[in-house]
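Quick one:
INPUT:
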């Protein structure tokens, strides 16, 4: 019986190898699970956001090593990024470490990982885009933060990769917005002109 049994789940996310699952609830509880071969889940660690509902979770797809070269054994760890309703960005792992790395001031709506550049890409409810580089030891280093120009209420409803470093976004308009993270360029493709 986990702590989640009292609250509604808001996010569940598997890592790429299906060996870890993170579950998060509307009360801010985060649980990292180990998936057993026969399908059972074993709770590894629990974290708390301080009561802010979790909106997004994403496992880091690159290997993070914990330990020093001074004799301590090196150990791989599984890192998960968590974004909350209050705009807090948290990094947690399956070994018991958790820390708040940034507060964006508004709900984290999308988390993506730009693997070629080792960057976490964060989009907020008000179309703030932040990029943070993931170092070899798992620390996040801010690269840039910018406000995206989006018409209407300014929200990005859905976002996906359209190519390396190129985001495609649905914003509730009759067009697809593209954001190039390498050149900081953006452009739109009206759906009427594309034949869609």
């Amino acid at each position: 019986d986990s702590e989640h049994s009292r609250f509604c789940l808001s996010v569940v996310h598997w890592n790429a190898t299906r060996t870890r699952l993170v579950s998060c609830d509307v009360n801010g509880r985060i649980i990292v699970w180990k998936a057993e071969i026969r399908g059972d889940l074993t709770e590894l660690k629990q974290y708390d956001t301080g009561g802010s509902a979790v909106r997004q979770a994403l496992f880091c797809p690159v290997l993070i090593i914990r330990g020093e070269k001074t004799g301590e054994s090196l150990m791989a760890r599984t890192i998960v990024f968590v974004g909350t309703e209050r705009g807090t960005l948290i990094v947690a792992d399956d070994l018991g470490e958790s820390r708040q790395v940034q507060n964006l001031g508004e709900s984290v709506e999308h988390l993506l990982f730009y693997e070629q550049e080792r960057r976490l890409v964060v989009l907020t409810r008000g179309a703030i885009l932040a990029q943070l580089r993931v170092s070899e030891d798992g620390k996040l280093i801010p690269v840039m933060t910018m406000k995206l120009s989006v018409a209407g209420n300014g929200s990005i409803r859905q976002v996906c990769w359209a190519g390396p470093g190129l985001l495609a976004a649905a914003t509730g308009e009759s067009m697809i917005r593209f954001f190039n993270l390498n050149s900081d360029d953006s452009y739109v493709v009206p759906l009427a002109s594309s034949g869609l």
